[in-house]
Amino acid sequence: MRYLFQLVAACALLPGFASAQLLGSTGLAPKEQKKKAHRDNVEWMWQYSPPPADGRENELLQDPRFVPFLQSYLTAPQAFWGPQQGPRKSLADTAFDFLAVPGQVIADSERYITVTGCVFHFCSNRGLLWVDLNAKDPLVIFAAIDWTTENRTPDDPAATYTVWIFSDQTLSAKSDDKNRVPPAFLKSIARWTAAPVPGQKHLQNITTAVLVDPDGTPHQLPPDALGVTSTEVKGK
């Protein structure tokens, strides 16, 4: 029954939904224009952090400021999620899809907010939204774990996943670069990927990481370069 449920869940994304495609010119949604009216203050998000222990993500997603916030900061084109024919979904819509089933809202160092969730009816595809509330120009990073081994069900430990990371600012995985990925984000994504999908015991086998610039340029990297926990399970 579990296999049947997962097969039905996977098929719910088809036809017309594609996964694990490296960014290219075909099918890319255009880069969205940043809506500066919503970029001044994002501290309103703090109210949804603990208590309670897991925060209040459901209420956060329903806040009338949340969707405009995503549209303002998540403007890069993406090509891993959306209909196969025609343009992909916008990154803001993609982020909402990957957070649709509430997970947690976590506060770190009285400065950083991490929001987690997963795709409705397909929680193996998970999302993380990380925000630096104290930065002069708030830094927003969205990460998505996307199932890529379509001949293996998501509950198979050998199934593989790609993690896509998008930021509203150009970031580098090199630790000595001025615009390096913030250590606080690396801590957050390590904690996230070190936890299994709810209802499963094994960690997801993340084999590929892609850091995407605001203009949509992808940089494929080893998962551990971005703080990602990788189980490196070998298929049989």
TrEMBL record:
Residues 1-20 form the signal peptide. The lineage of its organism: Bacteria, Pseudomonadati, Acidobacteriota, Terriglobia, Terriglobales. Residues 215-236 are annotated as: Disordered. The keyword Signal applies. This is Uncharacterized protein. Keywords: Signal. It comes from the Bacteria.
